[in-house]
Each structure stands twice: as C-alpha cells, then as structure tokens.
Amino acid sequence: MQQFKSNKQKEKVYTALVVVGLIASVMLFAGLSSAVLVRKMDKFWVNIHLPNDFRVSTILILISSVFMILALKKAKLSERKKTVNFLILSLAFSLFFVFFQFRGWSKYYHQGNAVKSFITFVYGQYGQSYLVYDKEIPIKYDGENYLKNDQILDASSIDNLKLFLRQICGYGTSFEGSNLILKDYNNPFQIFDVKNEQMLENMDSGLSLNGINLSEGQKDELFKFSFGVCNDQPFFMLKGKYGEDFSIALNGEDLIYEKKKLFFPAKELSNAEKSAINQKVFQGGKEYSIKNSTVYLNDDEINDFDGYFQLKQGINIRIKNSFWERTKEELNPNQYAEFYQTSNVSSSFVWVLTIIHFLHLIFSVSGITIVSVRAKKGYYSSENTAGLKAVGVFWHFVGLLWLYLYVFLEYIN
Predict the structure, then answer these.
(1) Is it the case that residue 12 has pLDDT exceeding 70?
(2) Are 360 and 401 in contact (CB under 8 A)?
(3) Residues 6 or more apart in contact with residue 200 via CB below 8 angstroms
(4) Average pLDDT over residues 22-49
(5) Is it true that domain 7-117+348-412 has CATH number 1.20.120.80?
(6) Which of 202, 130, 195 lies closest to 161, judged by CA?
(7) pTM of the entire structure?
C-alpha cells in the first residue's frame, strides 16, 4: 500500500482525487442542465413550484458546512474535543438536511411528478369513458370542479363520491382482478358508460353492461377512472391548483388553463414581430396594407387603425392605434393531440438530476460519519488533516451543487 512521507503529500493526493471527481460532476450537471433548457423551449413543459422543505434544507446544509470548516480549523490546531464536537454538529445538520430533502422529494412525487408519466390522466379521465350519476342526475367535471345541475359539489359530496368509487380502486395503484360487486349501488350513485351510452348494472356476479359481465379490459379502465377521482387526478396527473402549484408551457411560453382548455395568453408584439408582418387586411369594405410596422390605406399611412386580422391559422392580431398584440388564442387540434400524448419530460429530467444529487449526498454523509468516528479516536491532528479536508471539500461541493440545483429548478419553473 502506498505510504505518504508527509501530511502535505497525502493532502495533495487526496485533494487531486476530489477535484477530478468534482470536475466530472460539474461537467455532468452542465450537460444535463443544457439539455433541460433546450427541451423546455421546445414542445410542452410542466412548470412545478418546489415544496418549501427545500428552502429549509438549503439553510441546514449551509450551517453544516460552517461546522465542517470550524472542525478542520480545530483539527489543524490539534484540538481533538472541539474537532469532534464540530464534526458531530456538522453530521447532525447533514442528517437534518437529508430528512428535509426526503420529505421535499416525497411531496414532489406525490404531486404527480413520477419518473415517467403523462401530463394528463390519459387512460382514466373523468367523463372520457365513464362518469357517475347521482340518481338520474349526471355529475360532471369541468376541469376545475365537479358539477351537479351546474352547481359545484361541496367537499362532503366529493368525499361521498370518492367513498363510492373506492370500492373499485381500493388503495392500490393497479387493477388486480375483481368481480366489482358494489354496495349501495344506485343509492345514490351509479356509473354511466359514455362510449355505449348506458348505465352499468350491479348484478350478483358483479358490474355488467347489457347483462354481460365487464371484461378484464373494461374493469381495468373502470379502475383507472376510479383511481383518478379518488386520488384527485380526474384530468391532470399533477395535483394541486393550476397556476399556483404547477403550469404548462409550450415552446417556452406559459399557457392559460380554463376548464380543460389551454390558451396562449395575449401578448404585445415586439418591434421585430411587428416589422415581420406583411399582408393585406380587408375591413369595412376597404383594403389595408400592413408592412414595416405601419398600416396603409391607398399608400397613405393610417395612425388610428382599430381592428383584428388573422396572421395565420391559430394566430390573430389586434391593432389599435399604436398598440399591437397577439390575442388570447386556444391551442389548435394538432397541438391538443400532441398535448394529450406528451409525457411529463420535465419531471423525468428533474429525477435524473435528483438521483445524481442523491448519490453525491450518500457519499458525502458517509464521509462525514467516517471522519467523525476517526476524530473521536484521535486520528486527526495538526500533522494529519488530509482525509478531513478532502471530505470537507466534497461536502462543500455538495452544498454548492444543491444551491445550484435549487436555483436552477426554480428558474426553469
């Protein structure tokens, strides 16, 4: 085994090894971050507001790093007791950091941000294949609220609805086979098959349609429908309120959501965008010419023009005097088709970054634990601080890495 002639030599070797690892990590995160930024500006992207637990964990890792610095200083002075105390404090705060990280990522996951999932609840949307009737009255979902006779259901009524459907999905995440014999069927709830436009029947042998028991495929679809309602995912896979807990962007532009519909927001045109418009507009029986950011009528400049025109399919422009804007526009059918088939790529990227971050965290916390035990045994002194310094450098890097990751995730969202 290689023996070092001095602490100085050992410190140089340990530091070099750590630096090589850090450079590799920086390059990896830089590459992934670039991929995230490029992907965010192309196609659909989910913006997520991170849980507050991450703010707490940020403070904790900074405090832990401070204690690590103090521990190294005391080790260089051969003050064993203070070195041990500061290392224990650093370890304690690092464990608190891990706890809040775990809690934060758990909340992130339970908001519907799985490693691989769609943006919308593709195979179980309320009203797509099934919906529930309260006696003879359908309960509808408009993308924001459950409605009965156009009146919003209160929390108690929604809980009763979930309790009824819980008989189908239980508390599992996949259908494991059942005859689906429901209690209190049609008292008051029953299930309507949207595709066949008929009510399901609750027979002794289970739910059926036209006297024939549901197939396993139909049962699985009914399970997904029930799961979506019971887990607050009747439309989006993501939980929470749109605009507060999450939002959707297309080509880098945040979209407005209103009752299962998505819109590009109204936007004032830039000088470059106005200059790019060159077309004829017919209004009030007159032909106007728009070019070079100016409206003309018979080659005369018009300064008080007030009207709308279609620039191209799905994009309408309004000009009023000197104010030019793209009006609020709903997504076109092709964009909707893509939206419903798009997976939550942003969540996948975030989990890749997080897993790499967790690997760094495991190594660093293990390192702090080891040097804490060694310090208690009197391993470190003014003549031997190489290992402690290497672990400290790596822990500070993990802290900086988390700060970068937190700021980056807040920025892209």
Answers:
(1) no
(2) yes
(3) 190, 191, 192, 193, 207, 208, 209, 214
(4) 77
(5) yes
(6) 130
(7) 0.71
DSSP 188: S
pLDDT at residue 302 in the model: 85
Tell me the per-residue pLDDT of 93-114, one tens digit each, with 9 for 90 and over.
999 999 999 999 888 888 877 7
- Give the pLDDT of residue 350: 81
pLDDT 10s digits, 165-187: 999 988 877 787 776 888 889 88
Going by C-alpha positions, the residue among 183, 185, 172 that lies closest to residue 132 is 185
CA dist 178 and 176 (Å) reads 7
120 contacts 339 by C-beta, under 8 angstroms? yes
Q: How many CB atoms lie within 10 A of CB 315?
A: 12
Positive or negative: CA dihedral 358, 359, 360, 363: positive
Q: What is the residue whose two structure tokens read 């992207």?
A: 45
Name every residue whose Cβ is closer than 8 Å to that of residue 151 and which is 6 or more positions away in sequence: none
158 pLDDT band, cuts 50/70/90, is very high
pLDDT tens column, 360-405: 899 899 999 999 998 988 888 887 887 888 888 889 988 988 988 8
The backbone torsions φ and ψ at residue 119, rounded to the nearest 5 degrees and listed phi first, read -75, -45
Query: Domain locations in the chain?
Result: 7-117+348-412, 130-230, 267-327
Q: Which amino acid is at 181?
A: I
Tally the C-alpha atoms within 13 A of residue 91's C-alpha that lie toward its C-beta: 17
How far is residue 84's CA from residue 383's CA, in Å, rounded to a whole number?
16
Long-range contacts of 109-113 (CB under 8 A, 24+ apart): 110/239, 111/48, 111/238, 111/239, 111/240, 111/245, 111/246, 112/233, 112/236, 112/237, 112/238, 112/239, 113/46, 113/48, 113/238, 113/344, 113/347, 113/350, 113/351
